[in-house]
Amino acid sequence: MLVLGDSLSAGYGIDVDQSWTALLQSRLREQGYEHRVVNASISGETTEGGAERIGPALDNFAPELVVLELGGNDGLRGFPPQRTRENLEKIITASQAAGAGVVLLGIRIPSNYGPRYTQAFESVFRDTAEALDVPWIAFFMDGIALDEDLMQADGIHPNAKAQPLLLDNAWPIIAEALGPAN
């Protein structure tokens, strides 16, 4: 399983062993899955960077499933939503062409970007998932982003206490995509 994400999946500001991706590996084992989690997430990554890196990552790791958690940095930098969608589509279609399933973890941005941009940005995940028939969740940070106790001092990155909740948010679509454990 390949996790292609940004700082939310790279474990920014916390011990990487506490990250939701490390917890994912433990949950997979506990649930009887034999998958190995390869975390190819990079803090600051955009969908453009992910689109550039997906080919080599697919070649190197031949994942059964790609967990795609990118786009937040695109939104925070004000990238055009259509550009984000095109990059997500490149990542997803390359993954599918390589025989991997894909799940998409959607993200939202702060409302101070204005309602027009915010709505256009958030619809990118839904529209991409529906167009390419990919399981997705609307907001990976649901129940976390607005809780100061679960966020680092920067107000952007989840702390160690939030990591199990991130996993709980992502787990249903990951488990669904994997099917029953052997």
Query: What helical percentage do the residues reach?
Result: 40-55%
What's the helix count?
7
Q: Note the main sheet.
A: 5 strands, parallel
Which radius of gyration do the C-alpha atoms yield? Answer: 15 Å
- Determine the N-to-C terminus distance: 16 Å
Number of DSSP strand runs: 5
Rounded mean pLDDT is: 97
Shape: globular
Low-confidence stretches: none
CATH class identity? Alpha Beta
| Assembly state | single chain
Widest sheet, order of strands: 2-1-3-4-5
CATH architectural designation = 3-Layer(aba) Sandwich
Order of SSEs: EHHEHEHHEHEH
CATH topology: Rossmann fold
Structural class given helices, strands, pairing? Answer: alpha/beta
What features would you highlight for this structure?
182 residues; alpha/beta; Rossmann fold; five-stranded parallel β-sheet; 7 helices; 5 strands; globular
Q: How would you describe this protein?
A:
This protein is α/β, with parallel strands linked by helices. Helices cover 47% and strands 10% of the residues. It has seven helices and five strands. The protein has helices at residues 7-10, 20-30, 47-61, 72-76, 81-97, 115-132, 163-178; strands spanning 2-5, 38-39, 65-69, 101-105, 136-137. α6 links the parallel β4 and β5 (136-137). α2 packs across α7 (163-178) and α3 (47-61) runs parallel beside α5. The longest helix has 18 residues, at 115-132.
